[in-house]
Design a protein that fits this description.
With 98 residues, the chain is mainly α. Helices cover 66% and strands 10% of the residues.
Length: 98
């Protein structure tokens, strides 16, 4: 199921080369869910542990990749400022997710 969503995201990137901010938000959300669905099929592929005061989290691949995609806008904020096409943004988000 995750592969279908990822494939559809690639097609949508070509259909809407200059999406509105709302469309970017929706695409990013769907891509985060699709990546989590894809990663859920690979148990034990990626484990993340966060040990901070009062916070002790262990997450598997699905949750880790979903959060990475969902907050990628914050980590790539400087890349969003230049006039890059949606293709470059999609590639950058995809590269960060793995």
């Amino acid at each position: 199921m995750g592969v279908v969503f990822i494939f559809n995201s690639i097609i949508i990137a070509f259909v809407y080369p200059k999406p509105s901010p709302y469309q970017v938000f929706v695409f990013r959300t769907v891509l985060a869910l699709a990546t989590a669905g894809f990663a859920a099929a690979i148990p034990g592929f990626l484990n993340v542990s966060v040990n901070l005061p009062r916070i002790n989290h262990k997450r598997e691949a699905a949750t880790t990749l979903q959060v990475a995609i969902a907050i990628s806008h914050l980590t790539l904020k400087t890349f969003w400022n230049f006039k890059a096409s949606i293709y470059v943004r999609t590639i950058l988000i995809w590269a960060i997710s793995f």
